[in-house]
User: Fold this.
Amino acid sequence: MSDTMTVTVTGAAGNIGYAALFRIAAGDMLGEGIRVKLRLLDLPGAVRAAEGTAMEIEDGAFALLDSLDVYDDARAAFDGTDIALLIGSRPRSKGMERADLLSANGAIFQEQGRAIADVASDRVRVLVVGNPANTNALVAAENAPGVPGERFTALTRLDHNRAIAQLGKHTGAAARDISRVTIWGNHSATQYPDIFHARVGDRAGADIAQDRDWLENDFVPTVARRGTAIIEARGSSSAASAANAAIDHVHDWVLGTPDGDWTSVALRSHGEYGVPEGLVCSFPATSDGGDWKVVEGLDLGEFARARIDASVAELVAERDAVRELGFA
Ligand code: NDP
Assistant:
């Protein structure tokens, strides 16, 4: 890794962008030895707000920050970028059908995939946060000829962190003592948070999973619907925790996952665990600082298999819809 990296953040004027940018400038994402050139991208109507965020970042006087620029043009914003955080996406508005949402976002991520292929650095790594994140990542990847498919990922780290938090609450363990949790499938309510291979201190996750009532009626739905619970309590969607998870994702990709542990990453499938090739599906994965590698060979029981299959079926339907719309 070189000692200066260019990072582009889209949707920079939004809530997640606001929470992420300060942490990136402070060195939390790439490590304290790496200087950062920050590029903020947003829609023309949001550029003024992004400039306001940029003014606040300047006022942080961050030692690692080499430059800070605001753009409303994707090709300018991705020029030479090493890390692209694609946070901005079109939210579902009232009365919007699923096809309309996929179509609006398909156009955004098609354009961004093309721009990344044309102007980003040869070593670019992409994390899609904006929903529907998995399928947006698929669209970007399929429109980026020449960029290896494994460089396009989508965020399920927040779901992963939420699963660790719930498991910690249930067992009384601290997050640092919990490892090998997995989120499978789509970043949606169909995701399957899996603790059967987890470790909680000296205890096996499979042992904790014996409490089927807690597992099926509490743990799995609480993790999958946590976003909705936060909206109900806070009056707006999770932002700082999503930003934190995005930073964890890139941190572990670039600097490596801890020995003996893995994390959850939505990655293009090569057919692992029977997931159709090309889908961007969440798997257990490790990094040595280079590419993500899916952890293979985990035993999946009937309970897991049925849930993973349901989430993968949703990803197949999303892929078919964007294909029909001509985006992939
Ligand atoms: P946020 O910053 O709160 O969220 C941005 C995206 O992240 C949304 O799609 C949101 O999905 C998604 N997301 C993924 N995981 C989570 C999670 N766990 N919790 C919350 N959100 C999650 O949105 P804002 O509306 O505050 O800001 C969006 C910005 O993006 C605006 O400034 C807008 O102008 C910009 N934008 C930029 C585009 C571009 O650069 N081309 C295109 C479109 C918008 P969900 O909506 O499902 O919660």
About this structure: The mean pLDDT is 97.
